[in-house]
Structures are given as C-alpha cells and as structure tokens.
Amino acid sequence: MSNQFVRTELLIGKEGLARLAKARVAVFGVGGVGGFVIEALARSGVGALDIFDHDIIALSNLNRQIIATHKTIGQYKVDVAKERIMDINPDAVVNAYRLFYSPEAAHEVDLTVYDYIVDAIDTVTAKIELVLQAKAAGVPIICSMGAGNKMDPSRFVVDDIYNTSVCPLAKVLRKELRERGVDSLKVVYSKEAPLKPREDVVMEEATSKRHVPGSNSFVPPAAGLVIAGAVIRDLIGD
C-alpha cells in the first residue's frame, strides 16, 4: 500500500511525518471547531488522538460540524469522531471519552501523557481549568476563542491571549488568567467584531445556554483548521 501521507511528506519530510506519528494529542470539545481540528490532525498522520466531549449530535449541528449527518443524530460525538478517524487512518490510536471537562472532573484526566492539548471547549470555567492544568503539567496548549456570531473566516489569527482584541471571550479569559498568574497562552481568535443574532429566530431544540450564538458552515471550520495548522507546525518543530 502506498503511503497515504506522501503529499504531506513533500512538505515536511520523513522526519516530520515520524514526529507526527509518534505524537499524542488531546482535543477537548468535538464541535464545530474541535471536529475540524481532529479531522486535520488525523489526515496529517498524528498517531494518537484522545478526544473529549459529553454531548450528542443534534439537528442544529448539521450546519457546521463535520461529524454531523442525519445518520449520526443522537449519537455521541466522540464515538462518531473515533469511527471517522479510524476510517481515515486505521493505524491511529484513538481514545474517546464521553466526558464534560470541568474543575470537578479535571482529576480524571492525566494531561502529562500528551505532547499537545487543544482546547475547543465553549465553557469559560472549563477553559480556565484546562489551561491551568496544562500549564502545571508542562504540556503545550492552544485555545480556541469565540467562533460564534462571525461571518468572515479570513479574520482568524494565532497570537498570545494578551495580544487579543475585539473577541469578548478572549477579554474574559485575559482577566481571569492574569489574576491566576498565567503570563502567556497561545490562542486562535477572530479580529472580526461579533454580530448580533437575529431576535426573530426561535431555537426549537432544548438548550441550557441562555444566549445561543449564531454560526455557519465556514467560520468554525476555519478556526479549527488554523488551530490544527499551529499544532502540526509546533509538533514538527517548524
């Protein structure tokens, strides 16, 4: 069988592919952003992926989540993502955890086993806890900032949390992390000001969120692919 990663090898060489094959990456959140992170990492040849999410696929996920189809509605996101990864790269090691990461659940995950951590969670308390635990474990982490209420996929950049602007989520995290003594954090954020969701649209699905952000098929994927690219470059030492 020919090397399925040969087109990637043309860019990063055999040594780069070998580093990716030996890498173990954790992705927290398998949604509009996290699903595309996982997709890109799997197609790049990352050898081991641990994925964390407690949610199931809903009808409203179909407009932006790569694992969401009418066939997968009602299934756990991590289970569907694992099956997809294995179909892309049967040699990959995939561990799927139906877990909602939180300060209370942090003790259930040993972050020291990872080469890289991706935060694609949309809960502020969970993001803060994951960052603190990753820093304590000495493992590189990259965090996704807000991708909701955006329409321009070209506005995403990789930067330090303390250089961010515009993004409301980044503003909250800057304050919280500064108070906790975190002096740097790699993030992907959009320089586009968030739009105000229309008030004449009713969400029929039950949700615990007070304000559901608008989203689409091209902004969250763009954020996820930018994150994946940053992870790949860091893993191969580019």
Compact overview of the structure:
The chain has a seven-stranded mixed beta sheet with strand order 3-2-1-4-5-7-6, sandwiched between helices.
Number of domains: 1
State the helix count. 6
Mean pLDDT figure = 95
**Overall 3D geometry?**
globular
Structural class based on helices, strands and sheet pairing? alpha/beta
The radius of gyration over CA amounts to 17 Å
What would the CATH topology be?
Rossmann fold
Give the strand content.
Answer: 5-15%
What is the class in the CATH system? Alpha Beta
Q: Strands of the largest sheet, in order across it?
A: 3-2-1-4-5-7-6
The biggest sheet amounts to: 7 strands, mixed
**What is the annotated CATH architecture?**
3-Layer(aba) Sandwich
Low-pLDDT stretches: none
CATH superfamily: NAD(P)-binding Rossmann-like Domain
Task: Work out the helicity level.
Answer: 25-40%
Overview of the structural elements:
- It is a single chain.
- The chain has 238 residues and is of the alpha/beta class.
- The chain has a single domain (6-236), classed as Rossmann fold.
- The protein has six helices and seven strands.
- Strands 3-2-1-4-5-7-6 form a seven-stranded mixed beta sheet, with helices on both faces.
- The longest helix is centred in the C-terminal third of the chain and has 18 residues, at 219-236.
- The mean pLDDT is 95.
